[in-house]
């Protein structure tokens, strides 16, 4: 139990020659892409055959249902099929299609791997007074998942709330207490009292 109060030592993702970050033995790869007008784009590939990325909502890299305080988010599918839940409604996007989720709207997504095809999707976010969902969040969030889940463990709860609080992302599981939980657990407890870092500097080496 005491381990929850200590920031975990994270496994670094494999860095590919083209700049990609490889997680879950290559089942999930993310690239940082330049975007216009201050936006940030994460290009992400989900394997259509790996057990890490073929369990739908329960796949290891699938984000929990969440919402962004300030950022609008756009999915643009390049290959494969993306399944989404947006505001409680499920749908699909195929190659060439895109969809924008306004801030404060609950959502998540995953690869439709029913035909064994990879999903390649650009995720672009815009807006907000802070960086929000950005390359630092992608690196740290998925490094936490990639460290804990293959080891049969849960990611460190305090670390995850610290990240969400710092990047204006709110879990939808607790719609009423999500923002207070970010402040109390992520900002005050993990950040101020226990000095959990927002970024794990060793991942930058």
Short summary:
This protein is an alpha+beta fold and 205 residues long. It is built from three helices and twelve strands.
Present the secondary structure layout.
Layout: E1 14-15, E2 21-23, E3 28-33, E4 40-46, E5 66-68, E6 72-79, E7 81-86, E8 89-94, E9 98-101, E10 107-111, E11 119-126, H1 135-148, H2 157-166, E12 169-171, H3 178-193
Antiparallel strand pairs: 1-2, 2-3, 3-4, 4-11, 5-12, 6-9, 6-11, 7-8, 7-10
Helix pairs in contact: 2-3
Task: Describe the structure in your own words.
The chain is of the alpha+beta class. It has a single domain (2-204), classed as Jelly Rolls (Sandwich). 20% of the residues lie in helices and 30% in strands. It is built from three helices and twelve strands; from the N terminus they run E-E-E-E-E-E-E-E-E-E-E-H-H-E-H. Strand 1 (14-15) and strand 2 (21-23) form a beta hairpin. Helix 2 packs across helix 3 (178-193). The mean pLDDT is 93.
Q: CATH topology, which one?
A: Jelly Rolls
What spatial form do the alpha-carbon principal axes imply?
Answer: globular
Percent strand: 25-35%
Major sheet, described briefly?
Answer: 7 strands, antiparallel
For the biggest β-sheet, the strand order reads: 1-2-3-4-11-6-9
State the fourth-level CATH superfamily.
Jelly Rolls
CATH class: Mainly Beta
Topology pattern, helix = H, strand = E: EEEEEEEEEEEHHEH
Number of helical stretches of at least 4 residues: 3
CATH A-level architecture: Sandwich
In terms of structural class, how would the helical and strand content be classed? alpha+beta
Distance between termini? 29 Å
The overall number of domains is 1
Report the strand count: 12
Q: What is the radius of gyration?
A: 16 Å
> Could you estimate the helical fraction of the residues in percent?
10-25%
Unreliable residue runs = none
Rounded average pLDDT: 93
